Amino acid sequence: xxxxxxxxxxxxxxxxxxxxxxxxxxxxxxxxxxxxxxxxxxxxxxxxxxxxxxxxxxxxxxxxxxxxxxxxxxxxxxxxxxxxxxxxxxxxxxx
Length: 95
Known about the structure:
With 95 residues, the chain is mostly helical. 37% of the residues lie in helices and 4% in strands. The chain contains three helices and two strands. Strand 1 and strand 2 (87-88) form a beta hairpin.
């Protein structure tokens, strides 16, 4: 896959980056080099390779998946203009 000058201009437009006309050939070469590297990476056989978070063996830190109220309900609802029984009260907007 290769990028032409029109594609470079379109990418710059979508990214909201001002690119001068004399910069387009350089950027075209840079983008083509990146895409060539990605294509080269796709050739690597990764069968049997486990995903890792670091080059050093370690386990990801995990928290217990438990539902709690945060134990600060009173502090949170204290900021509400109107609250009742630890719930925010809002005005009715739909008839």
